[in-house]
Amino acid sequence: MSRKLLHHGFRAFTALCALLACSILGWLIFAIARRGWPAISWQFFTEQIRLVGASGGIFYNLIGTGILLLTAFITSSPMALSLALLHGVYLREGRWKRALETLLYVINGMPSIVCGIFGLIVFVQFLGWGKSWLSGGFLLGIIMLPTVTVALMERIASLPVRYVEAATGLGLRQSQIIWSIILPQSLSGLVTGSLLGLARAAGEIAPIMFTATIFAGATIPHGVKESPVLSLPYHIFILAQDSFDPSVGAKVWGTALVMIGLVFVLSLIALPARLKMHEEAHHD
Amino acid sequence: MQRRFSFTRLFSYSFSALAAGTVVAMFVLLILQSLPVWQHEGLSFLTGTKWFYRQQQFGAAPMILGTMITAFTALLLAAPLGIGAAIFTSEFLHPRLRLTVKVVIELLAGVPSVIYGLLGVLFLRNWIYDLLTPFDPLSGDTLLTGAVLLAVMILPTVMTLADDALRGVPVIQRHAARGLGLNSSEVALHIALPQSVRGLLAALLLALGRALGEAIAVFLVVGRQDNQWPYRLLSMQPLIQSGQTITTKLASSETNIAYGYPLHWAAICGLALVLMVMVAGITLISASFSRRHVP
Amino acid sequence: MIKTTFQLLLLTSFTASVVHADTLKINGSTTVNLPAAEAAEILRAEKKMDIQVDIQGGSSGGISMLGEGLVQVGMASKHVNEEDRAKFPKCEFKEIHIGEDAVALIVSADVWEGGVKSITKEQVKGIYEGATTNWKQLGGPDKRIAFFNKEPGRGTWEVFANWVYGDHKKAPQVSFPEVGGNEETRNKVASTRGALSQLSSSWADGKTVFALNIKAESGELIPPTNENIATKKYPLSRPLFLLTNGEPLGEAKTFVDFVLSERGQALVNKHGYLKLADLK
What is the C-alpha to C-alpha distance for residues A214 and A221, in angstroms, rounded to an integer? Predict the structure, then answer.
């Protein structure tokens, strides 16, 4: 009898844990949507900031975040493809393959603020770029690199061996196999991995606050040097500390709602496929 | 397959080298740029308890302690909850619902830290302040506030990785145990948990690494008070006081002020280096526990 | 898909080579930022000027970025001191006075209602140096003093330290919880019992946070009113500056002239500061 009681008790406890975790998300969305919704309108997306955030919209913040994310995607894709090819095709089991995995672990654990300081040294100090979208995009590309690479690695690992065997049988060279079979087949890994990586990069402030983004006035960058952009997360960060008007409050929450909406859309497109891929790669 | 020059191979090796080079450059640059402060302070950069940059006194110990207190407290809060929830999703939940719950958890993992910061500064600060009233805290900006916020932020990491680890236990073993008459709770407690201990440990360490490195959310709620070195090292007192962590210092106005003063700048880079070594160390230990995958 | 990505890459690298020269960059004090950012908006709309405004590092950030030539106009709520000039010998800092602001010592509602309505310089010193830790010692409620210090580099802090110690460099090193922006300061003081902090007086709304009167040695109570600030009777006031390297030229001059014009001065007033005309 007590065995059964324990069983039900334990199951209830774990269910409670899961419920609590899920309800945090529910509360979070509710809290933000309730305050942010009134600020959302068409003009909120199409106008630029006015009156230090109290009025106008977040047009150039969206554009800036878009530019940063596009740059991050362009930076991370070739690196992720290369690392995944090295891992899945070129390297044999052994020291170098383990080193590559370790590298991914280290990048994944890298505190984003340290990336920011690194960017400040390299781009602002050594290269003299001042604040530039390119520095920010590159740093965000590094931040999202592990997510993209692992998605690609898992995808490549799950490709049926007979594809490669058949191609080898046809006398194709290794690089031909890569271009005609492995890469097209693993494109879905790149897409889902990148979407998740971008969702993570979109909300990062620490890498870009010293290197790429300013509070007001930046529009479309015209060059590399001294070409900052506005961004969504930095806007929230500054207004959370410095606003001078109650009407700013609604705008902050509105921006937060847009921010979270962007992240969720990116994640939701990718997640079902990504989770399935992950399951297949690890649990049969 | 014959080995001859291949553009694809060159491409793969050079871009991989770029990724690896960036990480190496990060370490090297931070070491080089922080040299002046090591020459100036020596090891007392790590052990000194006073940070007064106008007097050129740079002791990082209170910040290192603050970082560890917040991160470990966060882990202490998130671990039971996350592992409990993972046991539910991996052992009890119907497979079709599993995916839904995992999507929710992944979404939670994707919430930007500035959003947590915003919610922290407007709600959590006040809740913790009210909650701690019996202990008479000076304000709601405490290490505990930062830790609770971090716990929520690392919860998805703990949960996802713990779920992976638990699911890594072979189905055959579960079936065998069920065949012996154990119910699913007993399978979870006596078979799945012990079998996946290494994976769970790896999950917790990775989450700890994430907690150590988070900056923006903690920044807004921790109080940013320098030189908080407790009288007794193992007391609970620091938790309900304001404090400073390495990340909040790096995100503060001092990084801008230091830029241009070699020694002060070196101290900032030294802090970044210490943080990076701490996190990289934990990440590597975690990796050695479980070589399965990165989240 | 790969092809479009490649085209985009080409496109970005092409536009990257076109250097855009006449962007006016402004950085510095969050206090000066309010009228300056609004002035920039007007100029952007009316004269199609390209102006970027940022508020990194407060006044010190403005001074050092102007000193390094990263911006053309700095914003500061404090004087450029000798140390700054020595650090950037190549920069000929020119201070352009655009208005005046006062730093108020603000307290939370429970302190105000508990009877603490004024404070002397000696009392402030006691709190800052940790000798005074309870409002009871100042005739208020029995509540510990939760002092939030403005973070280093902020003009507000220097005005405060200059008043208490004559020179902010003589201020002792202390460690209190730090606050940065004005909203953060107001929010944290308002939601903490027994709180005290320094804040631009235009933010002291008298509803959530309350500005203490300064009690002079004669015993007179001096509130931070416009009149008292204009006559310098209220001791914690500070000038607001735009900074340029030498005489302002070109776009920078257009900007400076606009802020000094009647419309620009109206903006200064709108954000709660005293315009130049009020000071005479």
Answer: 12
